[in-house]
Automatic annotation (TrEMBL), chain A:
Residue ranges annotated for the Circularly permuted ATP-grasp type domain, each copy included: 70-446
Coiled-coil residues: none
Source organism of the structure: Paracoccus onubensis
Signal peptide coordinates: none
Record-given protein name: Circularly permuted type 2 ATP-grasp protein
Automatic annotation (TrEMBL), chain B:
PANTHER family for this protein: BLR5614 PROTEIN-RELATED (PTHR33490), SLL1049 PROTEIN (PTHR33490:SF6)
Organism: Paracoccus onubensis
Transglutaminase-like domain residues: 158-223
Name the record gives this protein: Transglutaminase family protein
Amino acid sequence: MMVHYNEMFEGEAVREPYARLSEWVRTMPEDFRQMKQAEAEALFRRIGITFAVYGEGGDPDRLIPFDMMPRVFEQAEWRRLERGIKQRARALNAFLRDVYGRGEIIRAGRIPARLVYQNDAYEKAVVGVVPPRGVYSHIIGIDLVRTAKDEFFVLEDNCRTPSGVSYMLENREIMMRMFPQLFRKNHIEPVDQYPELLRRTLESVAPAKCQGRPTCVILTPGHFNSAYYEHSFLANLMGLELVEGADLFVDGEFVYMRTTQGPKRVDVIYRRIDDPFLDPLCFRPDSMLGVPGLMDAYRSGGVSICSAPGAGVADDKAIYTFVPEMIRFYLGEEPLLNNVRTWTLWKDDDYRYVMANLPDLVVKEVHGSGGYGMLVGPKAVKEEIETFRKKIEANPSNYIAQPTLALSTCPTFVEEGIAPRHVDLRPFCLCGDRIELVPGGLTRVALREGSLVVNSSQGGGVKDTWVLSE
Amino acid sequence: MKLRISHETTYGYDQPIRNLVQSLRLTPSIFEGQKTHDWRIEIPGGIRGPGFRDGAGDWVEGWTLRGPAEEVSVRISGHVETRDTAGVLRGHREMIHPLAYLRSTHATAPDKALREAAMSLETTGDHLELAHGLSALIAAAIAFRPGVTETHTTAAEAFALGQGVCQDHAHALITVARLRELPARYVSGYLHSTADGQAHEAAHAWAEIHVGNLGWVGFDAANRCCPDERYVRLGSGLDASDAAPIRGVAMGTGAERLAIRVQVEEMEQ
């Protein structure tokens, strides 16, 4: 039986950061809790935040359950995490600059060439293009889990267009509205500066050809996209135009936005469209979502695109295993955050080990996401394991395996009252002229008892995440 | 050889179009085998946009045309001095790692027949010899015959038909080369047909295969040879669509008619 670190309790004793919250929970009358839970749901419905987190699909009108019990970090814990996250973000961007340039890390034999150059996310169209300040991934979502007091692991990096930050902001907003007294009693670091920081980050990577204050826009695939709410939410908070491909056009060297006052030059595009759809002249010729000629304007320095096309090569599950190596190679530092031990099934030794130990391991598809197509060995019945074994045998290189981690738990409101449920954390790191991180991030919680899968498509919910100030 | 090239591509539209955007790779490459003089790209009514050399070493030029227009012409003219380098792309500056050209695309996706063909060749471990062998194999398997295949024909389809044009030969050769772990790419360009040669379209395409120490080497399976001084190289890509010399999109609803006129002549000495 695995021992799970409970973030609130040490045996019977309440851990320091949760001291005041514990009192709040203990004295809360049952009918008050139910009333507040209903109120929270009504608030979420009213603002219309019903999209699936991280592009997982599913019913777009379904509400993701919000749990009123916050998840708390003390200042010192957070500072350690923050240093580790920023370190990782610097290394990932250094890696991208390198593999679209001279490829020193490959020449040095630290990462296999094939893993990079034959990667589907590697865009040869941007080789040799150095974006402003050498930054390729401007918003990095790093998924973390905790297994002990001082033990955190990175599950995966998201260097393309990580979503979920609107939940981080809305969870806080709703908690403050419903329980203002909690925020008077606890000293909690704010998160509402995120939109301002994001806007500053975008402005800081405007192209050299930009004159005056940069014009930034958010490019969305449209309202049918599962994260459209987040696109319009962020545009609103940042005071930026939310545009679709058809609202933009290329004329000469630059990109313009159609407005009622005539065309307006656009300097920075925060795109929430995947690479293949950005420009039919460079990528998929049948794409109607993008802007024809955008890539030529980008490659010649007429416009910035965040994140840069091709940034996805840094967050592949196979590349993931090399991030500690990147940190050593580019920064000359030891990694502050651990990677999870990962077996790659295209290696013979790893394959043999994994096949012999399936009931103990978690197996994931290399390009999978959203908690689909994965095997959690200890939670699976024999037939599930055997079915999965056949899938692996058919295409071993499509899989990686990891040990089953003893994910920490956080008290969560459930039918019977309050009970421990497993959680993870996605902080959002911003990279421009500076590297910025708002304290906290998005906490996802597996609402089913014993479940280790926090994805919203698999019965996951969200929590407000507190970082206590000193 | 000194070649004079003129190339005009004219698009006619039933309904006037607006906001045409094009990305052109219509400027000869710079390497030991060719040197360009007085190269001109013109699109009457168009605005020249960004021009830059990309990671593959190709000169890319963006053009836009606001319209409305019922006809758009892309006019190219210039002189190129060529030299036979036995197909070797020597002195070409590019940054993309050859392994990036092992990826297959829709047009170059292998099927069983292409796999068997690729694996039928025995090799001594000499990559150049293997590349020549694969080129000869494709030349023998696909007879040159215009009008049987079209733009969207894949390597597997052309190979099954046993007939095709230079695009099909290039696609099939790229496919079998990649199956043998040799990076391969599609090259677009021009070919000067000498008086005694067969009749060819002057706009031409062939394959390049990356072989060990030599680097990129051209193979024209359609003509059973390596590019020499009759060839002018423009640009490359994973397949014909990726290497297309003209890519464009315009706003409009009507049908499009295409007229292409290419002349490649030897200049008086």
